[in-house]
UniProtKB/TrEMBL annotation:
NCBIfam families: IF-2, small_GTP. The lineage of its organism: Eukaryota, Viridiplantae, Streptophyta, Embryophyta, Tracheophyta. This is Translation initiation factor IF-2, mitochondrial. Residues 199-369 form the Tr-type G domain. One of the essential components for the initiation of protein synthesis. Protects formylmethionyl-tRNA from spontaneous hydrolysis and promotes its binding to the 30S ribosomal subunits. Also involved in the hydrolysis of GTP during the formation of the 70S ribosomal complex. It comes from Stylosanthes scabra. Its main location: mitochondrion. It is found in: Mitochondrion.
């Protein structure tokens, strides 16, 4: 074991020598002071090659120092040994592979078919709506909107409102401004605490199918004749008026149109009403708009009183109407329900007392009351533009008192009330609950269905109007984006050609503008896109003609005055089509015909005629000119045969060949068509095997235009 002891001594000697060399580096940061790393430690391994596999100390891995020392463990890997060139131990570094350049690196990439990514339309996430009330704090508003108190405080500072504390009560106007700035819609909650609450008249909406006698019934109640003044004998506006009953009680009535195009008007009427009078003709029964009116009333949670009209007509059958209503889920009193049914006749003025009694009884059961103190809450029934007075809105006050001189915000419009008129046209200084009035003084025309809000100052009205306008525009652009992006692009079917038809809509009142616009959009089809580029209230102006000329649109005017002669001539010179009507039926029919005219149509192949082969004639030709020609002697048995059509050869009922007509002759003359009952000679390109009894069909390409379809309920559509 002397050689083993000698090897150990040499190891220790080399380690000591390495520690005393100046080539060591000092590294700061160890826990015990300084750590040294020896560069020549590997030399000890050269002194004892025989101890690699036998020594208990081990050359491949050794350690010096203890926990108290300043040297940590060091392990030499085989790769380290090989890098030092110790090939005597059989440790060789791996050879580096030679870099080989791949061929074709400089070649252009292979052109691949472009596959569009599957773009899905973003889900139409409804805007968050929070409820606000008078006196709520900034902390409460932050909880409801999901925003931090500091961000809401910064918003209020930017709009010029000073809030000293986060627990300071805010007005509803300030709360709405802050909520709109952070992109949240609001719903105002009004409290009646501390105010005087008094009984109010009921608001009754008359609904039903077109031409079932709604306006005639109201005429009988108020002793007037509105139906005679309506264009076409049908109601096309939403009217509001107060009727004083023989008993002395007053009822506010809303008259709604019954045509299918005025669904939005009926929905607005149901939203503001207390009771719905459902008028059904005894000789006609339940119709589509009757069911729609029932749906609107149920959606608004409004009680229904059924008035079966035209009971004086010979074909009247009230019992059948009752069974139809019961089958539609309406629980009538006669069948154990709570819906009152009254049989009336507007023409003979019978049953009106019973209808009045039923309405007042229903109102008494509902115990209708409202506050008369404080700022008013009102609802826009209709809006129109008057040439001399400007924007006018018809509104019904729901609570509070509306007085002249107040600053109001209606939708995104604002103004100061200059005048208030009742439905009889008399000026008044104030409007109380359930009272329909006409307001004058707004800066712009609001939308029908907007709420009327009273604010304290003109500055507050301006700020609130600007915020609502900005929010309305954001919502409009978001809806437009959702409509433009297709729901899926995976369909490989060819999209049919679609033509855009721009339209400008002008009408007498705002509600009619919305109804006509909605009705026109229902006429969109896969071939024609009806794009409403502009809507407005009032007569056609020069700016409308200029806009129509710029975008190539036609102008649709409903229930407005005819434009001046100079304006009509300017439109004619610019090739602008003016469509003016006072009845919705005629307007939709004209627009439908215009859409059919502009539609490109679809190409279809149809059989134009049929001929039977009676004989076969062969014309010999030299080999240099080609094969012999075979002529089919035919008689046209159906339709006609044209030289420009495609010929289909049938044998025993099966298609044998299809090809073009090379020649068509009648006797010795070339002809374009041969009609039924005549004989002709026919040559089909690239076909020479005719047999007697074959049938030749003449196929032609035709363009099939869409169809304008009108249902019994008045609904219209374009069928491609």
């Amino acid at each position: 074991m002397a050689w083993l002891e000698l090897g150990r001594k040499r190891i220790y000697m080399n380690i000591s020598r390495a520690l005393n060399k100046s080539s060591f580096r000092r590294v700061a940061g160890s826990s015990n002071g300084s750590i040294y790393t020896a560069q020549s430690v590997y030399a000890s391994a050269r002194c004892m090659p025989d101890l690699i596999n036998h020594s208990s100390v081990g050359v491949a891995g050794f350690s010096i120092g203890t926990k108290e020392g300043d040297i940590r463990c060091f392990h030499a890997s085989p790769e380290v040994w090989a890098r030092r060139g110790d090939e005597a131990f059989g440790l060789k570094a791996p050879k580096k592979e030679k870099y080989v350049r791949k061929e074709g690196r400089n070649q252009p990439p292979v052109e691949a078919r472009y596959v569009p990514r599957n773009v899905k339309a973003p889900n139409s996430i409804p805007d968050k709506t929070v409820e606000i009330f008078e006196g709520m704090t900034l902390v409460e508003l932050a909880k409801r909107t999901g925003k931090s108190v500091s961000s809401l405080h910064d918003v209020l500072t930017n709009v010029g409102e000073k809030v000293e504390s986060e627990f300071e009560p805010l007005s509803m106007d300030i709360a709405e401004l802050a909520a709109m700035e952070v992109g949240v819609d609001v719903k105002r909650l009004h409290s009646a605490e501390g105010t005087e609450i008094v009984p109010r008249p009921p608001v009754v909406t008359v609904m039903g199918h077109v031409d079932h006698g709604k306006t005639s019934l109201l005429d009988a109640l108020r002793q007037t004749s509105v139906a005679a003044r309506e264009a076409g004998g049908i109601t096309q506006h939403l009217g509001a008026f107060v009727v004083v009953m023989p008993s002395g009680a007053s009822i506010t009535f809303l008259d709604t149109p019954g045509h299918a195009a005025f669904s939005a008007m009926r929905a607005r009427g149901a939203a503001v009403t207390d009771i719905v009078v459902l008028v059904v003709a005894a000789d006609d029964g339940v119709m589509p708009q009757t069911l729609e009116a029932m749906s609107h009333a149920k959606a608004a949670n409004v009680p229904i009183v059924v008035a079966i009209n035209k009971c004086d007509k010979p074909g009247a059958n009230p019992e059948r109407v009752k069974l139809q209503l019961a089958s539609e889920g309406l629980l009538l009193e006669e069948m154990g329900g709570d819906v009152q049914v009254i049989e009336v006749s507007a023409l003979q003025k019978t049953g009106l007392d019973n209808l009045e009694e039923a309405l007042l009884l229903q109102a008494e059961m509902m115990d209708l009351k409202a506050r008369i103190d404080g700022p008013a809450q009102a609802y826009v029934v209709e809006a129109r533009l008057d040439k001399g007075r400007g924007p006018l809105i018809t509104t019904i006050v729901k609570a509070g008192t509306l007085t002249c001189g107040q600053h109001v915000v209606v939708g995104s419009e604002w103004g100061r009330i200059r005048a208030i008129k009742d439905m009889a046209g008399r000026l008044t200084q104030r409007a109380t609950p359930a009272m329909p009035v006409e307001i004058e003084g707004l800066r712009g025309l609001p939308m029908a269905g907007d709420d009327v809000i009273v604010v304290h100052s003109e500055e507050r009205a301006r700020m609130l109007s600007a915020g609502r306008t900005r929010k309305f525009e954001e919502n409009r652009l978001r809806r437009k984006l959702n409509e433009d992006i297709p729901s899926s692009l995976e369909s490989s079917e060819e999209v049919p050609q679609r033509v855009e038809m721009p339209v400008i809509v002008k009408a007498d009142v705002q509600g009619t503008v919305q109804a006509v616009t909605d009705a026109l959009r229902t006429l969109n089809s896969s071939q024609v896109l009806l794009n409403v580029v502009h809507v407005g209230v009032g007569p056609i102006s020069q700016s409308d003609v200029d806009l129509a000329q710029a975008c190539g649109a036609c102008i649709v005017g409903f229930n407005i005055k005819s434009p001046p002669t100079a304006l009509s001539q300017a439109a004619t010179r610019a090739s602008i089509k003016l469509i003016l009507h006072r009845v919705i039926y005629h307007l939709l029919e004209d627009i439908g015909n215009l859409i059919i005219e502009k539609a490109p149509g679809t190409f279809e192949t149809q059989i134009a005629g049929q001929a039977e082969v009676l004989n076969i004639f062969e014309v010999k030709r030299s080999k240099s000119k080609g094969p012999d020609i075979k002529i089919a002697g035919c008689r046209v048995v159906e339709g006609f045969v044209a030289r420009t059509g495609t010929m289909r050869l049938l044998r025993s009922g099966e298609v044998v060949f299809e090809g073009n007509c090379a020649s068509l002759k009648r006797e010795t003359q070339d002809v374009d068509t041969v009609k039924k009952g005549n004989e002709c000679g026919l040559i089909i390109s690239d076909w020479y095997d005719f047999q007697i009894g074959d049938v030749i069909q003449c196929l032609e390409q035709v363009v099939r235009k869409p169809k304008f379809i009108k249902s019994e309920s008045g609904a219209v559509r374009i069928e491609c």
